[in-house]
Design brief:
single chain; 153 residues; alpha+beta; Umud Fragment, subunit A; 8 strands; globular
Length: 153
Amino acid sequence: MRETVALADLYPLIADVIAGGSSFRLYPRGKSMGPMLCEGRDSVLLGAVDTIEVGDVLLYRRENGAFVLHRLIERRGGTLTMCGDNQSELEFGITEQQVLAKVVGYYVGEEYRALDSDEYQKYMRERIRRFPFYRRNPKLLAFLRKVKRAIIR
């Protein structure tokens, strides 16, 4: 049975392992990255953040101190738009300085999955495509919500 450790307590070790050129295997909690990751079964390999590209799954820290593992949906003006694969609400305004690590591979159970596989690349592109432009544009989304409220009244 795996022991649960607060990520804030574990992060200094993760940072040391990554800084040493290795990857760190982490068993994430929660359902936000389903169906790619299933809590209690799957794990990710965290590595250095050499580059950040749309589609990457990144470990970052919110301003409130919470650690989050989500996919980069869009880059805009120096900020990142993030979202879990199993979510529809986008998180805007994440900075590159908040990014701590990048998923460089993952395991489904004990079976390793490479990020350069055709299966994963197809899955990743589908996840990015499911967020239409209006969902990635906070001003347009706010306007559309106002229009919807006006029509419903």
